[in-house]
Structure formats: structure tokens, C-alpha cells
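Example 355.
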Amino acid sequence: MTRRNGNFLLLTLLMMLVMCQQAIAQQKKNIIILATGGTIAGAAATGTQSGYKSGAVTIDAMIAAVPGIQDMANIKGEQISNVGSQDMSFDIMLKLAKRINQLMPGNDVDGFVITHGTDTMEETAFFLNLVVKGDKPVVMVGSMRPSTAVSADGPLNLYNAVGVAADPAAKGRGVLVVMNDWIHAAHSLTKTSTTAIQTFMSPLRGVVGVSAYGKNDFYNTPQWKHTSGSEFDVANVDKLPRVDIVFACADMPPDLIDASVANGAKGIVIAGVGNGNMNKASLDAAAAAVKKGVIVVRSSRVPTGSVGRNVEVNDDERGFIASDELNPQKARILLSLALLKQRAKGDIQNLFTSY
Ligand code: ASP
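Predicted structure in complex with aspartic acid:
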């Protein structure tokens, strides 16, 4: 072989390699990671201390720390906020929802991953489940251990979340949460442990599926309305009506309900005892709030089970709404969105059984 032929062969091989790489890149799904902070972006001075700062690491550094993630999908990261999710606000949730809705129709986006703290993950997940417009996968992920910890759980959680967001089978199941190999529906999951990495459970409905190193198995499709089937639209919203949660207990002081009303709450969710119960004095205070035009929803502080109408409380007589399966923090999200417009009480009750 002459030297000229050799060079030609080398050039052809190089071109074929580039074309192969381009073909693989085109086959890979395009995933946008929107980062909001949380322990997954947390850092500590050592790998074994329990104290750390949430939301200290940027999205680019987080992506760089996950081996193989770029082989699974074409990934772009965007920082929406960098807060511990105890500081998550409706302002940030609205910003996040609007950004997703802006990117959703693009041909260059196949799915979304949202990194988020676990403390209020279920609230943001449920909020997005109600206001995202489109069927492309929206997958939330966090971690219980900061990025600097020995056996940090964030990198594999993020890898699996990208694997779910890139999976066409995840489409149309509403907003999902991927943590510790389990895939949960926004409607049903809740945080159950302050520190364990297996913190998220979906006690009533079970998981939607499982995810293992980017391979997924889906068992369930959530039955409630969500995303493209949802009537809620925040395109022109920049503030949500105030809805408070009042926690019931033995010998509960009823004036907490009066204080909420006095401070301008348009809705009150009672984290009731048992089946959404509260003592007699609080029932009277809540009924008085209803008479002033405040919407009162009875939910429960009990982790599983639903709150039904007219069980131990006469909702028809007192004008209350029953939360069905929504826990107090999710009932608050739904009620805040519901109160964006005038609705009959019966219509609000129907929202609680359909979302
Ligand atoms: N406090 C943290 C947060 O919610 C906890 C976590 O992310 O696990 O941001």
C-alpha cells in the first residue's frame, strides 16, 4: 500500500467513526435536567458527617459526577434555583412549570428531569402533575445523602431518572418521582423517613414501576387526571391564593382556624385526626370560616387511607370538602390551584376525586 493510499484509508475510517458517533447521538434521546437544589446538590466537609448544606453543587458538576450518563442520553442542564426544598416556594414552582411548558413542544426535547430536595418533592411533583402541558416524561429525583457522602445515593438516582425520562414507556403517566430504584406517581407518593434512603413510599397505590441502571419495568398507570388531561393552567398566573394547613390533635385549639381566616387564607386544609376529624370546637370554627367564604378541606394526618364525605362529620351540613386520597400538603396544592377561579363547592369536591 502506498503512503497516499494509507492516508486515504485512515481518513475514510475516521469519517466512518464520526458518522457512527453522530448516528448514535441522533438515536439517543434529548433530556433536559432542570435543577432546583436539595440534598442531591448538597455538600459537606467530610464524607461521614451528618451535617451538610443543601443546594451547594451546580447541575453541571452533578452531571459530571455520574459515570455513563452522557452515553444514555444527550443531556443539557439548566439551573432554576439552588435551594433546600424546605425553601421551595410557589414562585419557584411557577418558574419551573413555565419553563417546562415553554420547552415541552420542542422537537429537540424528549423528556425532563427535575432535581429537587426530598422534603417537599411530593408537593412540587403534584403541582407539576396538575399544570404541565404535554405528555413527554417529567421525572423528579433527589437524594437523601449529600453528594460528598460515603455511598451517596444521588448519582445512581440521577442516572435512573434520566433512564426513565428517556423511556417512551414513561410517557403519559404524569409526573413521576424516581428514588432508590422505585418509580412513583406524583399523586400517590409521600416521604416516610427523615433519613432513610428508602424514604418514598406510595402506600395506597403502590409504585408505578422500578428502574435499575437505566432499564425500567412499568407496572401501573396512574388513574387520575394529570398533565395534558388537566384543566389547570398557570401560563398567566404569578401568585397563588393563600391556603393554610391546620394540624389537628387532641384538645386542638380552634383559634388556629380563626387566625388563618384573619390572616387572609382563602382556603384551609385540616390535617385531621383519623378520617379527617377534629374536635367539636374546631368543627364549629371551621364551619364559621366556611360561612365567611373560606373553602375548608378535611384531609388526614394519618399516612394511609382516604378521607370520605359524611363519615363522622356531616360535610353536607357544614359545607366542607373531603380530600379523598390527597394528604394535607397535596390537598393544599390542589385547593390553591382550584381557587384561581370561582367554582361551586360541588365542583371543588369533584376535583378531589379526579386529580
Ligand atoms: N432538606 C433537604 C431538601 O429537601 C432534604 C433532601 O433533599 O433530602 O432539600
